[in-house]
Amino acid sequence: MTISINHLQWMYETMYKIRYYEDKMAEAYAEGKNPVFNIGAGPVPGEMHLATGQEPAAVGICIHLKKEDTVTSPHRPHHHAIAKGVDLNKMTAEIFGKATGLGKGKGGHMHLFDPEVKFSCGGIVGAGIPHAVGAAFAAKKKGTDWVAVSFIGEGAANQGAFHESLNMAALWNLPLIVVVENNQYGISVPKSASTAVLSNDIRAAAYGIKGYYVKDNDPIEMYNVSKEAVERARSGEGPSIIEIETYRYLGHFQGDPELYRDKNEVTLLREKDPIIRLNQTLRNEHGIKEHKLSELENKAKQEVDAAYQFARESEYPKPEDALQDLFV
């Protein structure tokens, strides 16, 4: 399948933006938490789950989505939010707990919500799938061609919500796509120790729907597979499951000692980094010059740097405003 240069450049810029954003967040989150790790200290307190290494899953499908399409995300949401077009300033301010954030600082990292681009983050494992089914049902009832995409980790595919939602989506032929990000571990449990099937796309057969598998964190293959899945959903051909073999370079959460991983695992994964591979594809197969790629990288950095500056300079909510908007 031929991919336009504009799409390839958008994918590269967005993947680079996600990676740079997560690297900056790792630095900000670490502030004030050492030498003894204190989850409540620093400018970004609480738990933090970063998606470094998982960029292809988000970028490969969101490039095919419209503003009116719905995306739901789990507790590792930044890459999905960025790829869907969530306001980066407001998103970063929300994570910093500032009044200028998406939820005025009340939701934080695991509860991002932006109705402007129909993005929501449930935080709880598998919680976003029923919401996406609801959005897909609404789109069908309204007679639109909108689709709903629910991102989940491979561990969530063993939750009841996964099976109940897919059964209903198949029964009603809804425009739903469930993207399973198989990053190899459910917290610290390897997939082989928790899941009876080799990959979750196989489970699509149980509901009579389409299943796809993307190997080796490949952004080009994710683009191709997602294009077909989105086109099927828009044309009334019903739901599908996409499982992408992806990798998180960091722990389940920041501060995770990662005693369950081989020390050489991440080193080996970084040798086939998807951003580096896409960079090489653009240069070697499409003739894009290095200076053009540098321009895309610098543009992404500037946007991210501006978002972090906005978040740090924003004010915290006032105590008297704590209940504001909760009962509207």
UniProtKB/TrEMBL annotation:
PANTHER family: PYRUVATE DEHYDROGENASE E1 COMPONENT SUBUNIT ALPHA (PTHR11516:SF60), PYRUVATE DEHYDROGENASE E1 COMPONENT, ALPHA SUBUNIT BACTERIAL AND ORGANELLAR (PTHR11516). Pfam families: E1_dh. CDD domains: TPP_E1_PDC_ADC_BCADC. It is an enzyme of class 1 (oxidoreductase). Residues 46-320 form the Dehydrogenase E1 component domain. Keywords: Oxidoreductase, Pyruvate, Thiamine pyrophosphate. GO terms for molecular function: pyruvate dehydrogenase (acetyl-transferring) activity. InterPro entries: DH_E1, PDH_E1_Alpha_Subunit, THDP-binding. Its cofactor is thiamine diphosphate. This is Pyruvate dehydrogenase E1 component alpha subunit. It comes from the Bacteria. Its EC number is 1.2.4.1.
